[in-house]
């Protein structure tokens, strides 16, 4: 994990491999009309007041995501200056928003892979600015190297990973106040959150031959011991005894059995309890309803919801939030075999309801249904489930936005506002009652499939059937943003992203503060 410091050094005197400054588009319309962001003053002075002109000559436009590297002149201890684009400059009294700073810091940190230290002289006008820069840099510096030469224990002893593959070792945020309690707390929050998001990313990126229900449960158990979280693991025998027909039905085709993991963080002064349920299909072949060629290669990511829930519970514990947070990880492998659930089979769920399985590739809702019922038994103040649930949600909202459904409009609105605040793209979605009829079954209480059109909403309606009466509930379908297959951007890497963790942690903080009623 990349180290973080709040540095008292000035940009000109900091000894580092590089200095990062901000540059924005000016008010004019001419190419090269650039404005240096606050924090770059000392660097500009070293350039004789001509840094903006130098950047313009090199073709810099100040656009978000743009990085321009220039050799540092005499007067700076760092040998390289990186100008990170911030988009359009705000007005005289304006400030750059947190997400802009987060993305700029992330892009710069990623470009510095293999470096020992970088100073970030981006605009810090508030504690929130410093936290955004720290968070973005720590997330942007992420690198998954566990299976590369030199990191893999099975690799030859003399094999060494390329330096470019390694994360930036240290981020120094300039302009913050390291002795100020608020700045120190912001830095500690950024570290805890980034470390847990990056752990969630690691889990999503881990190949399914190494990450399966039992090994995922072992990771959760170890984290529980480290952070004072009570962990309970229900293995196959316990699931059979408890009647968890949904989880067992999905997992019965795999050689490695399913698990239901409960993580309970409690605070002695907590007044509210938040329950989180995560889909943890560690590999999804589609089961007997086998996925077509080209749709299997990334299905290690189908446990991203459980990874997000796990990361959130650990974050709440590390931050000492004054709220009880219980996480439920519904873990299974969905594999085809002679023992696998068949289309047409009927499962008896933990709730007692029966489900006719029309498509074994609609398995996430089955494991989630059991976990939702179990979570409801503890009568929490609210339940939020997180799942890479449907391709239909990707078709509706694209690869970067998750959908939010709820049985409570006010709760749905609150989560949407929180997600937007922390920089996670989301959109509120309805649960149309007319779509429920499509899941009627002549054999069982309900089928696991309904109308094809609006399939993401149908899945939400299915889950709603298993939420306890009177409990506020929301469903986050993160199928799009959970796993990024394109080129990295901002602080978002290729592969697992840690989607929804920041939203859930902020929700827990708001709940602790009593802001959600």
Task: Describe the model.
By secondary structure, the chain is of the alpha/beta class. It has helices at 41-46, 51-57, 98-111, 127-140, 181-205, 213-227, 236-242, 245-251, 304-319, 364-377, 391-397, 409-422, 455-464, 501-513, and strands at 3-7, 18-25, 34-36, 67-71, 80-88, 117-121, 170-174, 230-234, 259-265, 273-284, 324-334, 346-348, 354-356, 382-387, 402-406, 426-428, 446-447, 472-477, 483-484, 495-496. A hairpin with an 8-residue loop joins strand 4 (67-71) and strand 5. Helix 3 (98-111) packs parallel to helix 4 (127-140), helix 9 (304-319) crosses helix 14 (501-513) and helix 12 (409-422) crosses helix 14 (501-513). The longest helix has 25 residues, at 181-205.
Task: Trace the largest sheet across and list its strands.
Answer: 8-9-11-10-14-18-15-16
Q: Helical residue percent?
A: 25-40%
> Quick one: biggest sheet?
8 strands, mixed
Amount of beta strand: 15-25%
**CA distance, first residue to last residue:** 37 Å
What count of helical segments does DSSP give?
14
Uncertain segments: none
Structural class: alpha/beta
Please tell me how large the radius of gyration is.
24 Å
């Amino acid at each position: 994990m990349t180290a973080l410091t709040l540095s008292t050094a000035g940009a000109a005197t900091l000894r580092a491999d590089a200095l990062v400054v901000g540059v924005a588009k000016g008010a004019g319309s001419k190419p090269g009309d650039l404005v240096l962001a606050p924090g770059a003053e000392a660097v500009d002075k070293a350039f004789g007041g001509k840094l903006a002109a130098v950047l313009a000559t090199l073709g810099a436009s100040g656009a978000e995501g743009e990085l321009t590297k220039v050799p540092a002149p005499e007067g700076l201890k760092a040998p390289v200056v990186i100008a990170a684009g911030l988009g359009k400059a705000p007005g005289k009294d304006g400030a750059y928003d947190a997400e802009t700073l987060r993305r700029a810091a992330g892009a710069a940190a990623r470009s510095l892979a293999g470096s020992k230290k970088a100073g970030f002289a981006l605009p810090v006008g508030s504690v929130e600015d410093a936290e955004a820069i720290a968070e973005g840099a720590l997330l942007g510096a992420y690198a998954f190297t566990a299976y590369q030469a030199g990191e893999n224990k099975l690799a030859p002893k003399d094999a060494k990973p390329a330096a470019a593959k390694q994360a930036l070792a240290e981020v120094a945020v300039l302009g913050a106040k390291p002795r100020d309690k608020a700045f120190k707390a912001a830095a500690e929050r950024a570290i805890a959150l980034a470390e847990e998001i990056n752990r969630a990313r690691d889990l999503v990126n881990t190949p399914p031959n190494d990450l399966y229900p039992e090994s995922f449960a072992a990771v959760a158990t170890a984290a529980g011991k480290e952070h004072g979280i009570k962990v309970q693991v229900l293995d196959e025998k316990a699931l059979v005894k408890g009647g968890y027909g949904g989880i067992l039905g999905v997992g019965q085709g795999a050689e490695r059995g399913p698990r239901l993991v409960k993580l309970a963080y409690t605070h002695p002064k907590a007044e509210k309890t938040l329950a989180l349920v995560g889909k943890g299909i560690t590999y999804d072949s589609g089961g007997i309803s086998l996925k077509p060629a080209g749709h299997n290669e990334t299905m290690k990511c189908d446990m991203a919801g459980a990874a997000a829930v796990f990361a959130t519970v650990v974050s709440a514990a590390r931050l000492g939030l004054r709220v009880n947070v219980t996480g439920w990880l519904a873990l299974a492998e969905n594999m085809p075999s002679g023992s696998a659930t068949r289309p047409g089979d009927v499962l008896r769920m933990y709730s007692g309801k029966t489900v006719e399985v029309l498509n074994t590739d609609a398995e996430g809702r089955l494991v989630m249904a059991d976990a939702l019922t179990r979570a409801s038994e503890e009568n929490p103040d609210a339940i939020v489930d997180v799942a890479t649930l449907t391709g239909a949600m990707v078709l509706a909202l694209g690869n970067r936005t998750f959908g939010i459904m709820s049985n409570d409009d006010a709760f749905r609105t609150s989560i949407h506002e929180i997600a937007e605040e922390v920089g996670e793209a989301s959109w509120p979605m309805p649960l149309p009652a007319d779509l429920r009829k499509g899941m009627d079954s002549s054999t069982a209480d309900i089928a696991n499939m309904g109308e094809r059109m609006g399939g993401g909403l149908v899945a939400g309606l299915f889950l709603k059937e298993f939420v306890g009466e009177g409990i506020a509930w929301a469903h986050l379908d993160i199928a799009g943003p959970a796993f990024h297959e394109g080129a990295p951007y901002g602080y978002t890497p290729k592969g697992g992203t840690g989607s929804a963790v920041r939203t859930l942690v902020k929700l827990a903080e708001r709940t602790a503060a009593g802001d959600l009623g």
